[in-house]
Amino acid sequence: MKAIFALALVAALSGCQNSVENPELNQCAQQNFQCETNCSNSTVEESMTNTVCVAQCQEIYNRCKEQAEKLGEIQ
């Protein structure tokens, strides 16, 4: 659980560093942090359900990040 929180925090902080250049990327990181927090609050830590929930959050984040990077290239 602590590792997941640390990764989400790093993602959120790295999003803040990029927010001037790409605010969409920052939004992706914030959404990922919220998603993983919701997983932690609604499932038993280190359960299969939590693992699946977090994996889904990461998939959503990766798609969001890809789209945000494409938007950054266009602008």
UniProtKB/TrEMBL annotation:
Native source organism of the sequence: Pseudoalteromonas ruthenica
Top-level lineage group: Bacteria
Protein name: Orphan protein
